[in-house]
Structures are given as C-alpha cells and as structure tokens.
Target: Protein kinase domain-containing protein
Amino acid sequence: MADLRSPSEPRVFPSSGWDAIDPSLKFEEESIPNYKPKAFYPVHIGEVFNHLYQVVGKLGHGSSATVWLCRDLL
Model:
C-alpha cells in the first residue's frame, strides 16, 4: 500500500532565547580518553540529512558513537 502522506517541511529551530554552551568547554563525550574529534561528524540541531531526516536532539553517547533523535520528513 502506498503512503499517501505528503512530505513534511523541515522545522525552523530558534537561534535565540536559550543559553549557548561556551565552545571552549568540552562536552561529556569529548572527555572520553580515546576521543578523536575528526572521527565524529559535527551534527547540528535542525540539520537535515538526505532530505529525509531532521535532527531534533542528542539522545546519548558512548565510547564509539553518539545517538541522535531525528524527525522523519516523509
């Protein structure tokens, strides 16, 4: 059966009205002993991947991956 929904438009997330984290401070995952910044893609809230998924927030992280919550745009 075909999906009859029309694609959703990406949401626009506010760029103000909240506290920004000082970029000189390390996030939790950056303090893991074997952390290598170039091994991870720098994901941004609101970013859209392959016109299909929009990043909503970070769910968690471990020693080898970070898990992101994304909204399906289809």
Summary: The CA atoms of residues 13 and 46 lie 6 Å apart. The beta strands are 48-49, 53-61, 66-72. The chain has a mean pLDDT of 81.
